[in-house]
Write a structure and sequence with these properties.
The complex is a heterodimer of chains A (88) and B (409). Chain A is globular and about 30 Å long. Chain A is mostly helical. Chain B is α+β, with helices and mostly antiparallel strands. Chain B starts with a strand and ends with a strand. Classes of the chains: A mainly alpha (88), B alpha+beta (409). Chains A and B meet through helix 2 of A and helix 8 and helix 9 of B. Chain B: Pfam families: HMG_CoA_synt_C (PF08540), HMG_CoA_synt_N (PF01154).
């Protein structure tokens, strides 16, 4: 976890992300969503990944181009990015 | 009024069912739901970007009188399947279509956006009035060079060409003058750095496509007073790398521009977008021809009864994009129907996975520079169904001292 991201902001981002993943991949056990994995490791195909990012950014009120999410290596970094973008 | 007078698509003589390809490659069938594709065209060893372009355009050119043909004063091939660093595909196409020696001949490269960029530049030149009554022929042509290394992208890649004849009698689509929006920036989302290697970063590419759809439409709306994504366009025709991405793009735009719920979005998709996907779903991605394959699909699948406005979106990796619009009149249906595209797509020979891999071994050499090479079309007719192209067919017969050789069959 990145120290520059506040704990509260990060928790909110993580919760929203877990909800979005649950909606797009309803058969995925929540325990499989671990920080060191990429969305594709969870079985999300490219269209699922689009939907997850669009859903979570909408919920968090983040207005960023999708391309800002192109090179995020794993779920931990994705949560950091969401928390930072929400605060910005 | 300037626009598309006539349109044709050539998508090869063979195709493979995606379930067959998925089984052969061991791909996950669950992915078919979001891919939203059924088949894809498969190239044959005597086909290349030149033959695809000529075979797409020949029926259009043949239907013109000699006088009309002489007024094709601009020929552009757009391709990411160049056959030489210097000599263009267009030079061969110009010869084999028998176009005037007073014709301006060019090749354009801007990934899957190139054809639309050239359609717009050609329309601007035609509208200039510098040569009243002139026509322009833009042909988007490509071949597939990927094999199993490309994973799911192999299944989405098509083979063929779309020929677009532009002039001042736009029977297919009258282009709205000055109504366009652009969005472009540098990125390496997909590319062909070697003659047999396509590289792609799925997230980078799909996210760029969707950002460009949003931003190019925003630029369009800045230029066109009152433009509204949900109400201005009776139909939507989007570059279709695979149909599932178009569906995702439509959904994103509807969320951004309306407050309607999921059911209304789905109904809007079925009405305005789905008819454009029927051909791409059985051909695969035709690169810069893809948006014109989708245009042909919507006109053939859901013939217009009154003039309808179409919003078109073209995206090319790298990246460059444009949102533009035009009007399709009721006469477009019968005019395009003369090309019998649906019939020819259905007539492609269905090849099995073993046959496909045997063909691929040969067709992947298509763009590899060779000083001399012989191709005997007669060796490959078992893999083709001529009903997929009833007229004369241009075939590659080889390369002699770097000069590509062609013949008619």
């Amino acid at each position: 976890m990145n120290d520059t991201v506040g704990r509260e902001a990060r928790s909110a981002a993580e919760l929203a992300l877990r909800e979005a993943i649950g909606e797009i991949l309803p058969t995925l056990p929540a325990a499989e969503i671990t920080g060191n994995r990429h969305l594709r490791d969870l079985g999300a195909d490219s269209v699922d990944r689009i939907e997850i990012i669009l859903t979570v950014t909408r919920r968090l009120g983040i207005d960023e181009p999708l391309s800002a999410f192109s090179a995020i290596p794993d779920i931990d970094h994705l949560i950091d990015h969401l928390a930072r973008a929400r605060r910005a | 009024m300037i626009g598309i007078e006539w349109l044709n698509v050539y998508a090869g003589l063979a195709g493979i069912a995606l379930t067959e390809l998925f089984d052969g490659r061991g791909l996950d069938h669950d992915r078919l739901a979001n891919l939203m594709m059924e088949r894809r065209s498969v190239g044959l060893p005597f086909e290349d970007p030149v033959t695809n372009a000529v075979n797409a355009a020949k029926p259009l050119v043949d239907a013109l009188t000699p006088g009309e043909r002489a007024r094709i004063e601009l020929l552009v091939t757009s391709t990411e399947s160049g056959v030489d660093y210097s000599k263009s595909v267009a030079s061969y196409v110009h010869e084999h279509l028998g176009l005037s020696r007073s014709c301006r001949v060019l090749e354009a490269k801007q990934a899957c956006y190139a054809a639309t960029g050239m359609v717009q530049l050609a329309a601007g030149w035609l509208a200039s009035g510098h040569s009243p009554g002139a026509r322009a022929l833009v042909i988007a042509t490509d071949v597939a060079v990927v094999d199993e290394y490309a994973q799911y992208a192999e299944a989405a890649t098509g083979h063929g060409a779309a020929a677009v004849l532009l002039g001042d009698q736009p029977r297919i689509l009258a282009i709205d003058p000055g109504a366009y929006g652009l969005h472009s920036y540098e990125t390496l989302d997909s590319a062909r750095p070697e003659p047999t290697l396509d590289i792609a970063d799925a997230d980078r590419s799909l996210f760029a496509y969707l950002d460009c759809l949003t931003r190019s439409f925003a630029d369009y709306a800045d230029r066109v007073e009152g433009a509204d994504f949900a109400t201005t366009f009776d139909r939507l025709v989007l570059h279709t790398p695979f149909a599932g991405l178009v569906k995702a793009g439509h959904r994103k735009m509807m969320r951004e521009h309306t407050a309607v719920g999921a059911e209304a979005v789905e109904a809007d998709f079925a009405r305005r977008v789905a008819p454009s996907l029927a051909y791409p779903q059985v051909v695969g991605n035709l690169c810069s021809g893809s948006v014109y394959l989708a245009l042909a699909s919507t006109i053939d699948r859901a013939p217009v009864q009154r003039p309808e406005r179409v919003g078109l979106f073209s995206y090319g990796s790298g990246c460059a994009s444009e949102f533009l619009s035009g009007v399709v009149a009721p006469e477009a249906g019968p005019e395009l129907g003369r090309m019998r595209i649906a019939e020819r797509l259905a007539a492609r020979r269905a090849v099995g996975f073993e046959e496909y891999t045997r063909l691929l071994k040969e067709t992947r050499r298509c763009l590899v520079p060779e000083r001399d090479r012989r191709v005997d079309p007669e060796d490959w007719w078992d893999f083709a169904d001529r009903a997929a192209h009833p007229g004369e067919l241009l075939v590659l017969t080889g390369v002699e001292n770097h000069h590509r050789r062609y013949d008619w069959r």
